[in-house]
Specification:
The protein is mainly alpha-helical. 47% of the residues lie in helices and 2% in strands. It has 17 helices and two strands. The longest helix is centred in the N-terminal third of the chain and has 20 residues, at 25-44. A two-stranded antiparallel ribbon has the order 1-2.
Length: 444
Amino acid sequence: MKDIFPKLPDQDDFLLNLQNSNYSMQTIYNYARDLCIFAVYIHFINVDFKNVTKRDISNYKGYLRAGEHLKDLDKIRGKVLKNVDIPIENKGEAPRGDLRASNDMGGMNTPLDGSEKEKKDTGVFETDFLGEVYSKVYGGLGIYGKPINVSSRKNSGLDFSSINRMLSSLRSYLKFRISWDLDFPLAPDAIEMSKSDKRVKKVASLKDLTRLIEAPMEFEKDEKVAIRNRCMLEVLFATGLRISELIGLDIEKINSEGKMYVVGKGKKERAVFLTVRSLDWLNKYLGVRLRYAFTDRDEKNQPVEIDVLTRGKENTGRETYPDGDRKYIEMVEGYRKSGYLKKFDSPALFIPFSGGRAGKPDARISTNYFQEKIAEYRRKLGIQIPTSAHSLRHGYATYMAEKGASPVALQALLGHESLNTTSRYVHASEKFAEETVRKNHPLK
């Protein structure tokens, strides 16, 4: 059967070549997404890839800038859903959150684990690997069945930095065609990048970031959700992790030293270090997490006392815990050494306690859920500077730098290949900039 969705010539070979070259699944997914969007574009303007011109590329930039790709993706996705079983995010409802590609290309951030699942032979996908990739792409792109005026739909299109990343993917694909001696309509360098607006990126004050991190204990009605979300925010700011790295943490990574090894972009492993404060909150959360180790057991048969959420109550009804008590971290360390952790229903550190995902093997907190929670806390606290999980990573770098952290050390901690990338994260706050002028200006 002929493919029922637009693809570029030899696109499958390009993706398989990335896989064979040991690229991460998330990187492969990002390339597939970007190339599929371009394929949809030339499909609707009725231009064969071999006839693509510089004018088409210029118009493509405007197409993305205006957000027209969302409408066309809806049309294609509707056709795909009628012909092949593709998982739909949120059961056919519009994915929650901003559907434009974010600055780190995580706009449709659905991590792929590379597992090959048995699929019905529809003749649409050549391999299970490609089926997994394309089902993720067309299961999450567009906003199928939702009118353009709903609040969850963004119609302002992509910013110039996101557009440039889309063009960069196209350039890589053209370089692949050249290296494989395939015909190409344009040289990669003929695709000119857009001039991006150089705006000063703002990071909320340390005081506001601290209020945000502490917000779950004030705004969450469910005690275990409050502790979990507080712990996630504490770990995020203590380590500078990417949100995907935080969500992907397994409970076996935990130890009382607070040193963890995580695998980030490009499958690069690095060490991150928890602070004393974040370790204390991790210990509190583990007291809750261990009550959900086995979904088919009642509380008294879980590997933790059932009174963990009832001891130490103050008059406010909120939970209190002794500082420095690492009992549950030590318990997890013991379970890891004995192999008991492998028997848990989910290896994930942060798990959902309710909803359709709760209690399922490998269940993890959704990225969209956590981002929306951060946005909710920010609104309730009245923090004016837009703040997301990635903003906490920026804040981590900024305020570590203000305290004198070496840029080279920050590069290692953030997992950047280039020091230039790290420099973009270290945004000197206005307060720090002002202090520098007052202290160092030659004409005081």
